[in-house]
């Protein structure tokens, strides 16, 4: 019999089934509840745990699933059966040895722009041309689909004229099915328990809505298009690996078979920090609040630094404010582990460090540069950095050592922190641990007034 190592204190798990409890010591829960392990009991089949409202009790180990960060060795894909441009012969090799229902989709070589569905059926591979007509996909010109995911979903349920229904995807080498990975690690939420209410913001690729998930107000990023959803899968998987009070917390994701993706996060009632600063201004926000926001962000960044993540898009527009005025870093779309590379074309020039723009040298120290710009945004109540300098002149001037003046009324000690962040040599630039110490010192000595 397999002996499972007990989960350590602090492990998060998700309930797989409902548990009513039999004694007063038990902690009842429902399927989908998130529980945190407090300790293993003498009987390893039971843990002492607490739920999100703080109630404690014993829970049966086999009723819950450990929640882990989604860390796939390969590329997470919503369409792992899509092999891109391969030939008919290559497809046939991939579907060997024969197994009825094994399938893949490739780009058509004979009809560029169309696709081909290849299915193994009783020892033979059938190739069905998928035509692309008026924005829709079809095999038989009877059933039409918005995208490949919808098409594949349809034929996995019913052969509907094909030689067999689709049974088993032939995965592209190096890819991992995103659905399986999120489910295995305990991050898939139940669509039925989420109600999506009204729009609260427009993201680059879809609406941000306010919703209700099991009685809690949540924010839901709704990504409708399959190709875009694919890009957001990476962002969601980064979020599964992070947990800090100053990072916007992922609650889970919903992947619909037809290609939509919902990313559900904690609801941040006061919206983005840049809008918050602009709308309140200096009459409402005093030195204490500004320093508090700065420290909140710095703590989140120290956490990322310690865990080897680089944010790459730190700016006041990507920080959100909670009901109780806590600033939390959000938008992990460009966040990656320290080793990966980055295409510089998408980067916000005014926030990105010179070495990152010039040589794609990203490090925690390039995040430190952006943090300096973010501090400037905070102390100027949401102004756009480098006012009055045309965008194309910003980089050449910065490279020569130009730094922005202190915003009006900015305490000198805080301006000194900004200037430290804008030291051209990243090696000399301080790390977030040091910046946090400096800013805590500013707070303790009341140098922020
Ligand atoms: P984004 O696509 O993440 O840049 O979000 C666009 C806008 O939606 C933000 O500027 C916020 O106003 C709003 N928003 C995003 N996430 C949340 C959230 N978790 N809570 C509240 N509002 C949010």
Description:
β17 (250-255) and β18 form a beta hairpin. With 449 residues, the protein is α+β, with helices and mostly antiparallel strands. The mean pLDDT is 92. Helices cover 28% and strands 24% of the residues. It has helices at 88-94, 148-157, 178-184, 226-240, 273-284, 287-306, 354-359, 364-379, 391-399, 412-421, 432-444, and strands at residues 12-15, 34-40, 46-51, 56-60, 64-66, 75-77, 102-107, 115-121, 124-133, 136-138, 144-145, 168-169, 175-177, 194-202, 207-213, 216-223, 250-255, 261-266, 309-310, 319-321, 327-329, 336-337. The strands form 6 sheets. A 6-stranded mixed beta sheet has the order 11-10-9-8-7-12. Strands 4-3-2-1-5 form a 5-stranded antiparallel beta sheet, with no helix packed on it. It binds adenosine monophosphate (AMP). The site of adenosine monophosphate has 14 residues, from β14.
């Amino acid at each position: 019999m397999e002996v499972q190592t007990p989960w350590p204190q602090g492990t998060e798990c998700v309930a797989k089934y409902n548990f009513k409890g039999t004694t007063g010591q038990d902690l009842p829960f429902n399927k989908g509840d998130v529980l945190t392990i407090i300790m293993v009991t003498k009987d390893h089949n039971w843990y002492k745990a607490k739920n999100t409202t703080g109630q404690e009790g014993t829970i049966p180990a086999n009723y819950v699933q450990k929640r882990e960060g989604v860390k796939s060795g390969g590329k997470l894909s919503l369409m792992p059966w899509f092999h891109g441009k391969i030939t008919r012969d290559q497809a046939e090799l991939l579907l060997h040895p024969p197994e009825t229902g094994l399938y893949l989709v490739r780009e058509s070589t004979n009809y560029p722009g169309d696709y081909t569905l290849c299915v193994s059926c009783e020892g033979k591979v059938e190739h069905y041309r998928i035509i692309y007509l008026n924005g829709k996909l079809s095999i038989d010109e009877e059933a039409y689909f918005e995208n490949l995911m919808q098409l594949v979903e349809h034929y996995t349920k019913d052969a509907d004229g094909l030689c067999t229904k689709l049974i088993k995807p032939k995965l592209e080498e190096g890819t991992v099915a995103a659905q399986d990975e999120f489910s295995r690690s305990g991050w898939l939420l139940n669509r039925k328990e989420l109600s999506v209410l009204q729009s609260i913001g427009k993201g680059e690729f879809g609406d941000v809505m306010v919703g209700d998930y099991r009685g809690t107000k949540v924010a839901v990023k709704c990504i409708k298009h399959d190709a875009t959803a694919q890009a957001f899968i990476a962002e969601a998987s980064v979020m599964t690996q992070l947990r800090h009070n100053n990072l916007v917390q992922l609650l889970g994701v919903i992947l619909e078979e037809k290609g939509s993706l919902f990313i559900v996060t904690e609801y941040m009632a006061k919206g983005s920090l840049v809008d918050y600063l602009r709308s309140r201004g200096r009459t409402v926000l005093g030195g204490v609040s500004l320093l508090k926001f700065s420290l909140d962000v710095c703590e989140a960044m120290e956490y990322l630094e310690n865990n080897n993540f680089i944010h790459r898009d730190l700016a006041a527009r990507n920080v959100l404010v909670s009901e109780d005025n806590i600033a939390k870093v959000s938008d992990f779309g460009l966040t990656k582990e320290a080793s990966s590379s980055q295409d510089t074309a998408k980067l916000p020039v005014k926030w990105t460090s010179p070495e990152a723009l010039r040589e794609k040298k990203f490090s925690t120290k390039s995040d430190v540069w952006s943090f300096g710009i973010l501090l400037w945004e905070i102390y100027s109540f949401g102004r756009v950095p480098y006012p009055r300098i045309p965008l194309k002149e910003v980089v050449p001037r910065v490279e020569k050592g130009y730094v922005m003046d202190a915003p009006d009324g900015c305490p000198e000690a805080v301006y000194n922190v900004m200037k430290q962040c804008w030291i051209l040599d990243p090696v000399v630039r301080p790390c977030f641990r040091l910046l946090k110490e400096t800013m805590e010192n500013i707070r303790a000595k009341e140098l922020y007034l």
